[in-house]
Each structure stands twice: as structure tokens, then as C-alpha cells.
Design goal:
By secondary structure, this protein is of the alpha/beta class. The chain is built from 16 helices and 14 strands. Helix 8 (157-160) links the parallel strand 5 (149-152) and strand 6 (165-167). The radius of gyration is 20 Å and the shape is globular. The structure holds 1,3-dihydroxyacetonephosphate and iron/sulfur cluster (SF4). The site of 1,3-dihydroxyacetonephosphate has 11 residues, from loops.
């Protein structure tokens, strides 16, 4: 059965004078990418969502990959995975609506078990989170006794419950080095992103054992794509997400998390830039940097794109879909996230360098 928000299941709300009054101040934020005719479709949802947020003491946490009308017009906090986790931990709202994917909503629930956490579409998954289970991690721990388990936040609560410390793309190198030091081991299990693992391994002496997971969006980019972009756009600055394969990063000028890339553009104001990541990022960063020209190769994340304004409104109206996690799993999964949040972040980016990564193994799914 189609979920609410699919075209067949709802009728559009009307663009009334009241809606216009409530939303006119927001339009200039997104006018560059949303034509007026399209804005009239979004505005009634934006007005209704913002009213309900106030009424219900709720916040919307919006990931950088959300479309501009969500990111700029209903998101209370926007950012990368680490920033959203930190906001979830801090908020005094009663309800969190996660405009992102399911693992992000689980992270919010783990950090705020007393709050209601809603995900507007249960099908908003992630190829990385789907690549590994808690049982897989238990088997790996038996195979590599004593090696700390670092897992990417793009994992389910079950996997986090088997983890020593979590990381995101903005702190992965620091977390791996911290884990090796604290657990007194020269080897770290780094799960489940094989490409992030290799990219991290290139920046540390810690021996890394990884897993065969990959982001279905970032693994599609190739080094040849970058060469073609450079040929067609001389002087373009190339920023890549560390979930891309290492040969893609080797061709980039800078690698960093979604917010790392966004900050790079803000701070450096390159004339021409390309973000090797999900499509909506460029729109959101472009809106904040009107003097920068963006070259746009486009790989969409089908999971992120399941989150739409009608579905967010439906969540507020019906309190669907509530994220429920077994309290025992919450208790176990919280520790590795708290450990990550407590680490001071000193290195925001992953610059290229040529040392070949030492990655001990890529496990296949057990
Ligand atoms: P960031 O942590 O860089 O936002 O990346 C998360 C991600 O992969 C979103 O899908
Ligand atoms: Fe997962 Fe990749 Fe989509 Fe992020 S972009 S949610 S890592 S599939």
C-alpha cells in the first residue's frame, strides 16, 4: 500500500491568504531554486507544519540532504549526522521529527528515550545500515578478540548495541585513534563502510578491519567522473564525501562530511565548485553562497528523498511513525554514541595524501 504523501494518497492543500501571510518571509530563502508556482504547492504544508511545531513543542531535525523547502523552511536544526545527534541530545522539545533516514531517527531516540521521535516514512533506510546486523558484529568480535568496535552512525540500534564507540564521517579518524589508544589495540574493527574504512586507514597507523558495506549513492562516483568534471570545468574545486571510493578522494581537493564540505565553501568562496555527494546538498549550500558557481553531477539518495513536506505534516497530525526501540538495546546503544559526542573534535576534514591504506580485511556478510 502506498505511504501517505505518495501522489495518489493526498490532495494538495490550498494556497490561501493566511498561508501567504505565514510563509512570505520564507520564500526569499529558497527563491533561487523553487519557482513561484511550485512555492504555492509547498507553502500550505510549511505553514501547517510550523503551526503544529509550536502547538506540540516539537522540532524538525533536517539532514543536509533534505530538499531546500524542508531544509530551509521547516528544519529547526540542520546539519550532518554528528550535528543532528548533538542537537537531539540537547533539545528540550517533547517531539522530534527526523527529516532524514531511519538510523538518524533511531540515534535521536537512543539519546532521548523519553521523547517521541517520529520518522515521516518508515522506508527511509540506508544501504550502509542494511549491510550489517548485531549478530554479524558479535561474530566479528569473536574473530578479533580485544579489537575495539567502531561503527559508523549509519547503523541500526542493534549494531550500535554491540559497539564500543560510534563515529561519523566528520570524526572517524579521531575516533579510530582514540579507540586504539583507549582499548590498547593496534587493530580496530571499523564497520560497515568499506570505503570510509579505507579512507580512514590512509590517515592513521591503526590497522583497520572492515566490512563490505557501501553507500549506494557515493559508491557510484568514479575517478573518471572527476577527471571529466575537471576537463569540462577548468579550475573547479572538487569536494568529496569520504563515503566515496578512495580513488575518487584521491582526485578531490578536499574530503569531508556534508557539513565539512559546506563549511569549506563558506570559508573559501571558490569561484567554481563541485560537491561529490547527494544532489540536494548543492542546492542548500548554493542558497547560502550566492557568489559561488556549483557544477552539479547528480546522485540522489532514494531514502532521503522519501521525506517530503506532506509526509512531515502527516507525522505531526497522526504521530506516525513513532520510533520504538527495546529499552535494553537503548541502554547498550547509548554508551558508544555518548562516547563519540564527548570526544572533542579537532580535525574537521580528511585531506588527501598518498600513503596506501592498510585495511586488514573486508568481511563478507556472515
Ligand atoms: P554526514 O555525516 O556527512 O552528514 O553523512 C551522513 C550520510 O551519509 C547521510 O546519508
Ligand atoms: Fe545511506 Fe548513502 Fe543515503 Fe546516506 S546517502 S542515507 S549513507 S544510502
Amino acid at each position: 500500500m502506498p505511504a501517505f504523501g505518495d501522489e495518489k494518497t493526498h490532495t494538495a492543500l490550498a494556497y490561501t491568504d493566511e498561508v501567504r501571510r505565514k510563509t512570505d518571509y520564507l520564500y526569499p530563502k529558497v527563491a533561487q531554486f523553487i519557482p513561484e508556482i511550485e512555492w504555492r504547492v509547498h507553502a500550505p504544508y510549511i505553514a501547517a507544519i510550523n503551526d503544529l511545531k509550536r502547538e506540540k513543542n516539537a522540532v524538525v531535525l533536517a539532514h543536509n540532504y533534505m530538499t531546500p523547502e524542508i531544509f530551509n523552511c521547516v528544519g529547526d536544526f540542520a546539519g550532518d549526522s554528528l550535528q543532528l545527534a548533538k542537537e537531539a541530545a540537547k533539545t528540550d522539545a517533547d517531539i522530534i521529527v527526523q527529516a532524514g533516514v531511519h538510523f538518524m531517527a533511531e540515534t535521536s531516540k537512543i539519546l532521548c528515550p523519553e521523547k517521541t521521535v517520529l520518522i515521516p516514512d518508515l522506508r527511509a533506510g540506508c544501504s550502509l545500515a542494511a549491510s550489517i546486523t548485531g549478530a554479524d558484529v558479535r561474530l566479528l568480535k569473536q574473530k578479533y578478540p580485544g579489537a575495539p568496535v567502531v561503527t559508523y552512525v549509519n547503523t541500526t540500534a542493534d549494531v550500535k548495541a554491540e559497539t564500543d564507540i560510534c563515529c561519523t564521517s566528520s570524526n572517524a579518524v579521531e575516533v579510530v585513534e582514540y579507540a586504539a589508544r583507549e582499548w590498547g589495540s593496534d587493530t580496530v574493527l571499523f564497520l560497515p563502510d568499506q570505503y570510509l574504512a579505507k579512507n580512514v586507514a590512509a590517515m592513521t597507523d591503526v590497522k583497520i578491519v572492515t566490512w563490505a558495506g557501501a553507500c549506494e549513492v557515493h559508491e557510484r562516483f568514479t575517478a573518471e567522473d572527476i577527471c571529466e568534471i575537471r576537463e569540462g570545468n577548468p579550475g573547479v574545486i572538487v569536494l568529496a564525501h569520504p563515503e566515496c571510493p578512495p580513488d575518487v578522494l584521491a582526485e578531490a581537493d578536499f574530503a569531508g562530511s556534508t557539513s565539512g564540505m559546506s563549511n569549506f565553501v563558506k570559508e573559501n568562496q571558490p569561484k567554481n565548485v563541485v560537491l561529490i555527494t547527494e544532489c540536494s546538498m548543492s542546492d542548500n549550500v548554493a542558497l547560502e553562497n550566492p557568489k559561488v558557481n556549483f557544477v552539479r553531477p547528480c546522485n540522489l539518495c532514494p531514502h532521503m528523498k522519501r521525506i517530503t513536506l506532506p509526509k512531515i505534516l502527516h507525522s505531526f497530525q497522526t504521530m506516525e511513525h513513532e520510533v520504538i526501540i527495546d529499552p535494553e538495546i537503548i541502554a547498550k546503544a547509548r554508551l558508544p554514541i555518548d562516547r563519540m559526542i564527548a570526544l572533542p573534535l579537532t580535525r574537521q576534514s580528511m585531506y588527501n595524501h598518498q600513503r596506501p591504506p592498510e585495511v586488514a580485511a573486508i568481511e563478507s556478510r556472515v
